[in-house]
Amino acid sequence: MDQGTPPAQATISIVVPCYNEAKVIAETLRRLVALAKGLQDDVELIFVDDGSSDSTREIVKSYDSDGIPVRLVGFSRNFGHQIAVSAGINAAKGDALVLIDADLQDPPEIIPEMIRKWRDGYEVVYGVRTERPGESMFKLATARGFYRLLNEFSDVPIPFDTGDFRLMSKSVADVLRAMPERDRFLRGMVSWVGFRQTPLPYKRAPRFAGETKYPLAKMVRFAVDGILSFSIKPLQLSVSLGMTCAVMAVLGIAYALYLRIFTDIWVEGWTALMIAVLFLGGVQLISVGILGEYVGRIYSESKGRPLYVVDEYYGFPPP
Ligand code: UDP
Ligand code: MG
To answer: What residue ranges are annotated as transmembrane (predicted)?
Structure first.
C-alpha cells in the first residue's frame, strides 16, 4: 500500500465542503489562495457545493484565483457534510489531501505544518482543537460527551476533539475511496484505516460569518450515525438490558411466591405492577428501536444507490 516518500514537488489537494456559505466563501478563497501561493508545492482547491441555495457556487466559479486551480463539484441537492467531503476526496488528484471547513473555523495557516509532518513520514495529520472560542458551553459539553461515548462503543479508538480538519496521504485517500459505505463518518473511517497518524493541536476560531449548519437535531443524528456505523455494541447493550430485566423478574417471582406460601402478607398493589410493565415496555421499545436503526442501515446500503449526484464539475482538467 505504501506509495513511497512524498515527492519533492508534490500536489496538495485542499477539499472544502460548502453549504450556503456565500457570506464567507470569498474570504475563504482569499485565505486559501494566499496560502497556496506561499507553498513550495502545487495546490488544487476543490470546493464541493452541497446544493447551496445561495450564491456560493457562483462566487467560487467567478473568483479570480491568479493561477491557482480552483475546481468545483456541484451537487444536485443537499447531501450532507460528510458526503460532500467524500465527493471532494474522490475528485482530488493530489499526493496529499487536506480537508477543511469553509467557515474558517480551522485556520488554513497551519496547513504548512501539516505538510511538514507528512514529509516526516506521517500518513495522517489530524487537527486537535485545544480551544474553541465562540461556541456555546452546550456544544462543548455535548461534543465531549459524544467523543467519550463514541470511544466507549467503537472498536477503533477515535481521537477526542478532532474534526475533519486533517491532512491525509494519497494511500489513505485511496483506502477511503474504496470504502463504499453510505454511513460516512469520516473521522472514524480515517482512524480505522490505520497507518502512522499524528495529532496537530490548534486553536479553533469562531465562525467567520454565517450560521452553523449543524443545529441540535442534526448534531444528534450525526452522533447516532457515528456510533452506529462504528459499532454493534448497542445491540449487545440491549441484550444485556433484556437479561437484567429477566433476572429481576425471576427474583420478583421468587419473592412473590415466598410471600404467598410462607407468610400472610400477599403481594398487593398495582403500583409495582404498573412500574414493571412500563419499564419492560420501555426496554423492549428501545431494543427494537436499536435493532431498527441497524436494519434501516442494511436497507439503505442494500439499495446500492450512488452516494451523491453531481450536476456540475467545474475547473477540472479534461479526462
Ligand atoms: N456543510 C455541508 N453540507 C451540510 C452542512 C454543512 O457541506 O449539509 C459544510 C459547511 O458549509 C461547512 C462544514 O460543512 O464548511 C461544517 O459545517 P458547520 O461549520 O456549519 O458546522 P460546525 O462547525 O458548526 O459544526
Ligand atoms: Mg463550522
So the answer is: 237-258, 270-295
